[in-house]
Write a structure and sequence with these properties.
Blueprint (H helix, E strand, L loop, with lengths): L3 H13 L3 H13 L1 H24 L1 H7 L1 H31 L7 H7 L2 H13 L2 H10 L11 H28 L1 H4 L2 H24 L4
C-alpha cells in the first residue's frame, strides 16, 4: 500500500458524505430507536464486506465490464430505494391522517423488527453497483502495481468497512441523544418527508447511472 495517510483521509471524507446508507440509518434510528439504527449499520457493513471480497476475487470487475449484470443490479437497487422512499412517504401520510398514538418500546420493536432494519441496510448497500465501481476505481490508486493486489485490496476494504462502522455508530448515538427533539411530530414529519424524497431521488439517480 502507498499513501496510507491520503487513503485514510479520503475514506473519512467519502464516508461522512451523505448517501443512501445515511438516509436509511437516519430513518430507522428515529423510527425504531438506537437499536434499529445499529442493526441498519450492521447490515450496511455486511454489504461492504461482500463488495470487498467481490473486488478481491474480481467479481466487481465483471459487474463493471458487463453492462447486463450492471443493469440488473442497478435497477434492483433503484427499485428498492424508491420502494423504501415511497413507503416512508406513505407512512408519513398515515401519521398525518391518524390521531397521535403513544407506542411503547415493545410495540415499536414488533412493528419494525431488527431483522427488517438489518435487511434494509444490507440490501441498500449490496444492490448498489456504484459501490463496486467505487472499490475498483478508488482502491487501485493506493496499491503498488508491481506487487500483488489481493492482500492490499483486502486490507483497504476492511479498513473502509471499519471506518464506516465507527462513523455510523457515532452518528446513530448522536441521533439517539437528540431523539427527543427529532421525534417531535413536526420535526419527525419534516425529517421523514425529506428522507422519503431523498431515497426516491437516490433511486432515480442510480437508475440513470451508466456503467463506465
Amino acid at each position: 500500500m502507498v499513501n496510507i495517510s491520503v487513503f485514510l483521509l479520503m475514506c473519512i471524507l467519502l464516508i461522512i458524505l451523505p448517501g443512501p446508507d445515511t438516509a436509511i440509518a437516519t430513518k430507522n434510528t428515529l423510527t425504531v430507536s438506537r437499536k434499529g439504527g445499529l442493526q441498519t449499520l450492521l447490515g450496511s457493513c455486511c454489504g461492504l464486506l461482500i463488495h470487498t471480497f467481490a473486488a478481491v476475487i474480481g467479481l466487481s470487475a465483471i459487474i463493471v465490464k458487463s453492462a447486463y449484470v450492471f443493469a440488473i443490479l442497478k435497477y434492483v437497487g433503484a427499485v428498492y430505494l424508491c420502494y423504501l422512499g415511497i413507503k416512508t412517504l406513505w407512512a408519513l401520510r398515515a401519521i398525518r391522517t391518524q390521531p397521535p398514538v403513544v407506542q411503547d418500546e415493545t410495540q415499536i420493536d414488533h412493528k419494525y423488527s431488527q431483522q427488517t432494519c438489518f435487511k434494509q441496510g444490507f440490501l441498500t448497500n449490496v444492490t448498489n453497483p456504484k459501490v463496486a465501481v467505487f472499490f475498483l476505481t478508488f482502491l487501485p490508486q493506493f496499491v503498488d502495481g508491481k506487487s500483488g493486489t489481493f492482500i492490499p485490496f483486502l486490507i483497504m476494504g476492511l479498513i473502509y468497512t471499519a471506518l464506516t462502522g465507527f462513523w455510523f455508530v457515532f452518528y446513530v448515538y448522536l441521533l439517539d441523544k437528540i431523539s427527543a427533539f427529532m421525534k417531535k411530530p413536526k420535526t419527525k414529519a419534516v425529517i421523514e418527508g425529506l428522507t422519503g424524497a431523498v431515497l426516491i431521488g437516490f433511486g432515480i439517480k442510480l437508475a440513470l447511472e451508466k456503467a463506465h
